[in-house]
Amino acid sequence: MSAAVMSVRARLRGLSLAQRAALGLLMLLAVFAVAGPWVWPDPVAQDLSRFLEPPSLSEPLGRDHLGRSVAGRLASATRLSLLIAVACVTTAIVAGMLAGILAAWRGGLVDTVLHGLSEAFVALPALLIVLMVSAMSGGELWTLYAGIALAQWIEYFRVVRARSALLLSGPAVEAATLLRLGPMHVLRRHLWPDLRPLLTTMATFGIGTAVLAVSTLGFVGVGVAPPTPELGQMITEAFPFYHEAPWMSVAPALVLVVVLVGLLGLRTKESAS
Amino acid sequence: MADRQAAVVGVTTIPPLLDAEETVEATRVERGAVRRGAARPILRVLAQRALQAVSVTLLVSTACFLIVQNLPGDLAYRIAAGRYGYDRVTAASADAVRADLGLDAPVWQQLAGWWADLVRLDFGTSLVTGAPVLHELYVPVTSSLHLAGTALALALAVGVPVGVVAARRPNGLLDRVTTVWVAGSRALPPFLLGLLLILVFSVHFGWLPAVGHGTASNVVLPAVTLAVGLSGLFARVTRDTVAQIRTSDFVAFAESKGLGERAVLLRHVLRNAGVTLAAYVGVQALVLIEGVVVVESLFAWPGLGHALVHAIFWRDVPVVQAAAVALALLVVAVNTVVDVAGLGLDPRPRRRSVPS
Could you tell me if residue A256 is inside a domain? Predict the structure, then answer.
């Protein structure tokens, strides 16, 4: 346990100031998203007598045009975005990595088929893929998840395939094979350590891209179906009330920007170490 | 979304760079093959892009077929309602439709039929308006081309000069401004930027129309929204390329033989930078088209993205298919133009006998 704490500390020390700030910002947002449901249990509860109520102590972000708590909706929307993004990126990484290693390892027909598929996919705008998949049954979460994961696995596949092909043909792997060390050993000791930093960097991109995709779809009106709160959809709903209730549109826009800035900050050049 | 390609420059990292390197690598391999004396390079490029166009179209079309298969309800009843009227939908009429259209055939046979329609360019009729889809798509295609073209021209017109000037003084003011510009446009999603522009220029100052289509001023806000991010990226790439080319031997030679700064820049530096920049525009085509979809919805611009989003909203599958195919082909078309431009700028692959 203490060893784990120590290693976390060591990691933190390796981060630059900008990275620490970004990490703090994202943690704050995560706490807001996780704790939100306890403070505001029902994000879709309406109270029409209190529509467009300005921010106050009990209602820090005011209420929207249907008298719903903006803070409660925001917390729930943030949680939704982050959860979908993490789920999509995890799926895409696992799938892309396995397919990439498989293609590099087996070569031949497997490689030709997988590579050909990725070539066709890469020519398609990712947003188009997400839109098409979500068209299959609109407004449902799983289509959103499937669409984004489907759009994202390709880049992991391409990078992992190129990188593993290089490593697998290198002297280290050759030596390991000569020593009769099995494929699991090669995977764990030769491929994974090399791929890991690459994949973590790509994952911060991927999460930002996924959050953006969810909110973009919500914004144009084909994402998560109302009344489930979602950032992009909240912005669309709030925009007509910009003059009477600016807090309604500023709050979700700000959360979106904070997520993107936070992820951007995590990637800034490392530091002292 | 945009990050897949948007990432190539700036604040970051390895994987996107890989993308760019891969592109460069790919062109090199292509050229190598050409030099060994296959077909003429331009034919080769066109053939490759044609193959890509076909595979992309098949992919999109198959996805649409899956959408139709997954739509809730029985397709036969739906079509029967369209044919015989909503009050005459009976099991018998649905059966008639099913037999007539072969809806009870195995899925793979239906898919083959679907592809056959595509080959005959039969995109069907819109389920909403009832008009032939190909006919309906004329306005969206031209509007999207108009918007994307304007945005691209604007981005190049701003980005390239800024990059050239920034390259004169690395880490100078303009250079740092560009870095912030790129990072900022990454953190501000296009639809938020569009909303901000509407608030400032339409609502507050009332200078420009927020939505609509027809007069010349309508294109300004959507095109600027698209161009802000792109021009920053173009500035970065131009700056990096120009700075790199400046250090090469042939520039030193041109300077030492007494050519003026202007001539060196125009004749040697910019032409070489153009090859890289053209390839980069191709990479950014995906980002541009994604942006078009979002921005068109925001500004009610009657283009392909607008049509696609509406068709998805109404479950109008024939229009979804046609609009999606058109958008995908637009990406391929931009890339083809870029490839041909690259060949025009770079004579090396054209002269087979000259070793490089």
Answer: yes
Contact B312 A131 (CB under 8 A): yes
What pTM does this model have?
Answer: 0.79
Candidates A97, A115, A122, A132, partner chain B, best to mutate (most B CBs within 10 A)? A132
Its domain, for residue A184, covers 15-31+64-272
Judge whether A40 lies within some domain.
no
Residue A125: its chain B contacts at CB < 8 A?
Answer: 1, 286-287, 289-290, 293, 327-328, 331
ipTM above threshold 0.90: no
For residue A9, what pLDDT is reported? Answer: 73
For residue A204, give the nearest of B105, B97, B197, B15 by alpha carbon: B15
pLDDT tens column, A139-155: 678 888 988 999 999 98
Q: B55 to chain A, minimum CA–CA distance in Å?
A: 6
pLDDT at B14: 36
In a domain, A76, yes or no: yes
Q: How far apart are CA A128 and CA B324, in angstroms?
A: 7
Which residues lie across from B132 on neighbouring strands?
B125
- B294 contacts A220? CB cut-off 8 A: yes
Number of domains in chain A: 1
Strands in A37-175 per DSSP E? none
Nearest CA in chain B to A212: B1
DSSP A99-128: HHHHHHHH-HHHHHHHHHHHHHHHTS-HHH
CATH of the domain at A253: 1.10.3720.10
Is the per-residue pLDDT at B87 higher than 90?
A: no
The answer to whether residue A71 is domain-embedded is yes
* A69 bridge partner residues: A63
Q: How far apart are CA A173 and CA A175, in angstroms?
A: 5
